[in-house]
Design brief:
This protein is of the alpha/beta class. The protein has 2 domains: 121 residues, no CATH class; 159 residues, NAD(P)-binding Rossmann-like Domain (Rossmann fold, 3-Layer(aba) Sandwich). It is 34% helix and 22% strand. The chain is built from 12 helices and 15 strands. α5 packs across α11 and α7 runs parallel beside α8. The longest helix has 16 residues. The two termini are 31 Å apart.
């Protein structure tokens, strides 16, 4: 579940539990070009305050105006379609004549958003089924559908699990990676068994572990929503983590170090029970090749590559650099 939709759920719970009239809007269908994908959510309060986004802004403006005027106060969920005509598509900022269908639902305790949020924050995978006529909501663990299904009677959505990032090594670069990853709403765990490295750690909302990296990764049971980056420059620690991470379903595994150091690392990993395919999953040198030199720039490069992989975008520059086609960055950058 992405960070925007998590913030939407949090706001919807807070506003509705404060006795404010609150509506949750979910994009359920799109035709042609649309600014936001199916599953995007936005919450609107009776005074027009919003969290999240379902378009470039014009649909939000229309809904805000109507809700302030007292529209959409019925209990049953409501389907709305924007952009049927070229004129309406232009009015609401939908590109290329795109059309969007959304579902509006009144948020109440029966919406069961709090147990849904709790499950997602606990790395759960939850299917939420909304009866569009009665407003009744059923939550089931696991994915009952691929992502979203809507018909005349029901809206079924899948939520979670939350993305996690495990950082091995509490170095200066780690601090910037953790802060940026938190802004992207990753659950961040920093692992460093070296006692002196965690003493001054003060990044809010980050879990700290003094376990050995391989023990931690085994305990966390990495899934396809997990990423692991090793930043210690100490092969004894980094390699231990990589041996477990590369065998896991983690969507991203990266190691700091120059191209030469990563070549040596791959040779060491080949001595253990890893296949060539598993070793080939390693992103090292870590991060997109953007000429990064300072710790914040290196962190940006790492998070950019992670984001590209997560979104299914090829990272050709980084792949070319790892293969030696591009000149490696100076020592210290993606090092």
């Amino acid at each position: 579940m992405d960070s925007v939709n998590l913030e939407v759920l949090k706001a919807a719970i807070e506003w509705s539990e404060s006795d404010r009239y609150t509506l949750l809007a979910t994009v359920v269908r799109t035709w042609g070009s649309a600014p936001r994908p199916v599953g995007s959510m936005m919450v609107i309060r009776d005074d027009g305050h919003v969290r999240g986004s379902i378009s470039g802004g014009c649909i939000e403006d229309d809904l805000i105006w109507k809700i302030r005027e007292g529209h959409y106060r019925e209990t049953a969920a409501k389907k709305l379609t924007y952009g049927i005509s070229a004129e309406e598509a232009h009015r609401f900022g939908l590109p290329c004549g795109g059309t969007m269908e959304i579902v509006l639902e009144h948020v109440t305790p029966a919406s069961r958003l709090r147990p849904l949020l709790d499950a997602v924050l606990s790395q759960g995978l939850v299917t939420r089924e909304l009866d569009l006529e009665s407003g009744t909501v059923t939550l089931n663990h696991g994915a009952r559908v691929a992502s979203l299904v809507v018909n005349d009677r029901h809206l079924v959505t899948v939520h979670g699990p939350r993305y996690r990032l495990i950082i091995v090594g509490a170095a200066q670069v780690s601090r910037y990676v953790a802060e940026m990853a938190r802004s992207l709403d990753y659950e961040v765990v920093v692992c460093d068994p070296r006692e002196e490295y965690l003493d001054e750690w003060d990044v809010e909302g980050v879990q700290l572990s003094r376990e050995m990296p391989d023990d931690l990764l085994l305990r966390l049971q990495l899934d396809a929503h997990s990423a692991v980056v090793t930043l210690t420059h100490d092969p004894k620690l980094d390699d231990m983590a990589l041996l477990e991470a590369l065998k896991s379903p983690a969507f991203y595994v990266g190691a700091i170090g120059s191209r030469a150091n990563n070549d040596k690392r791959r040779e060491r990993l080949a001595l253990f029970d890893l296949t060539d395919e598993e070793i080939g999953r390693l992103h090292g040198p870590i991060g997109m090749h953007i000429g990064a030199r300072t710790p914040p720039e290196i962190a940006i490069a790492i998070l950019a590559e992670m984001t590209a992989i997560r979104n299914g975008v090829p990272v050709l520059q980084s792949q070319a650099m790892r293969a030696g086609v591009l000149t490696a960055a100076p020592a210290g950058c993606m090092a």
